[in-house]
Design a protein that fits this description.
The chain has about 425 residues and is an alpha/beta fold. The chain is built from 12 helices and 24 strands. It binds zinc ion (2 copies). One zinc ion binds near residues 56, 58, 138 and 159.
């Protein structure tokens, strides 16, 4: 098996790998990096591959996949749940950045038509190779991908989280001997807080804000995080109104059809029943003056209804804002955290609402990553990718020292064979 890294080498973004297993050639992910303009991985001719295997829907893994669907010779392999969520995320991507993208809606539709739905934990044939998708614990439907060819076995983690959350089970750690492991490194150099404490703190903050007559805004990614926070509130019997807006509503409907991917489907259904789904502007204007929790999409606070919510919530010191996902340096969410400032209609505005950060991550922290490595069987070569340069390089070094394995943070375009 030969693998070449096309993206996500010493960076978070545009994950992509080219795999050659005998005469079978395919890609693992083909994402995008969101800078001033979208940046794609190293280019590959569609005729040079027969398939794209997609770990999960996030654009840093899926954003470039439609590029390979101008013709008819490539198929997409993913879990059914990932496939449906990817469709709505790429539709949204086309709406926001359409003119900058090297594909159109037609290619997305063709990709959906050419999708082979892979059931988790089942071995599937792909030319001369066999592939298996196993739970990655990162978002519902997200998978790690195991590739077998000629007695050699490699695992690509995509994004993963070993810990259970309210919404889903943690990543699987049982795949036999490996010859090659490509692992994400996002939080290899930092630990997450204890999950239980974090949930309690978050619910406590929500109560405080509502009980002093304020509204708590929770800007959350529409895929997974929004649903997770809804379930956290209801699992802790939060007694006040919880409302949800934006693209998260579409995700709710999809998740209802794929409850087998959820840790506790009954909790999810109960939480949905108790949550108000917001679809009209009259309701939005009313809710920002109602003591309640508002879960709104756009994790980075750019675009969508959350811009309206933010400008309203910012005005009153009784209100609160819970930052629940990683904020890219330079993003509006980050300057909100660091300086308490935000842009309202293009004008820098001081935020009076109380801002708190909660580290609800969909990724394994340092402790879980090392635990994951310690349970790997065989003595695989290891590539550390999908992290800041420091996180990838140090992680590889620590794996070499602690486990005596041949680990490395590859550079863009580098290849490896097993
Ligand atoms: Zn992800
Ligand atoms: Zn990622």
């Amino acid at each position: 098996v030969d693998v070449r890294v096309l993206g996500s080498a010493r960076e978070v973004g545009r994950s992509a790998f080219h795999v050659k297993a005998g005469s079978t050639k395919f890609l693992l992910d083909y994402g995008v990096s969101m800078r001033r303009e979208p940046v794609f991985p190293i280019h590959v001719q569609p005729r040079e591959i027969s398939a794209v295997l997609l770990t999960h829907s996030h654009l840093d893994h899926s954003g470039g996949t439609p590029i390979f669907f101008f013709g008819d010779n490539v198929e997409l392999l993913s879990t059914p749940l990932t496939s449906e969520i990817t469709k709505i995320l790429i539709e949204d991507f086309l709406n926001l950045s359409g003119p900058l993208l090297p594909f159109e809606y037609l290619e997305l539709l063709n990709m959906m038509k050419k999708t082979r739905r892979i059931i988790p934990d089942h071995l599937s044939e792909l030319g001369e190779a066999q592939v298996k998708f196993v739970n990655a614990g990162h978002t519902p439907g997200a998978s790690m991908i195991l590739v077998e060819h000629n007695g050699k076995r490699m695992l690509y983690t995509g994004d993963m989280n070993s810990d259970d959350s309210q919404l889903q089970l943690g990543a699987s750690n049982d795949f036999g001997d490996l010859d090659l492991l490509i692992t994400e490194s996002t939080y290899s150099q930092s630990d997450h807080p204890n999950r239980r404490d974090l949930e309690t703190e978050f619910v406590q903050f929500a109560k405080e804000v509502v009980e002093r007559g304020g509204t708590l805004l929770v800007p959350a990614f529409s895929v997974g995080r929004a649903q997770e926070l809804m379930c956290v509130l209801h699992a802790h019997s939060f007694p006040y109104t919880v409302a949800m807006d934006g693209m998260a509503l579409k995700t709710n409907e999809i998740l209802l059809r794929f409850q087998e991917y959820l840790r506790d489907p009954a909790l999810f259904r109960r939480s949905l029943e108790k949550t108000e789904m917001v679809t009209t502007w009259s309701r939005r204007r009313k809710l920002v003056e109602t003591p309640c929790v508002l879960i709104s999409p756009a994790g980075m606070l750019v675009g969508g209804a959350s811009v309206f919510y933010l400008s309203e919530i910012a005005k009153n010191r009784n209100n609160g804002i819970a930052i629940v996902s990683f904020q890219v340096p330079g993003s509006p969410g980050r300057s909100l955290l660091d300086k308490g400032m935000t842009l309202v209609n293009g004008k820098p505005t001081h935020v009076k609402a109380e801002i708190k950060r909660f580290d609800f991550s969909g990724h394994s922290g340092r402790k879980e990553l090392f635990n994951f490595i310690s349970r790997i069987k065989g003595s695989p070569k290891i590539w550390t990718v999908h992290g800041e340069p420091e996180s990838c390089v140090k992680f590889a070094e620590e794996i070499r020292n602690q486990f005596g394995l041949d680990a490395k943070a590859p550079n863009l375009g580098e290849s490896i064979s097993v």
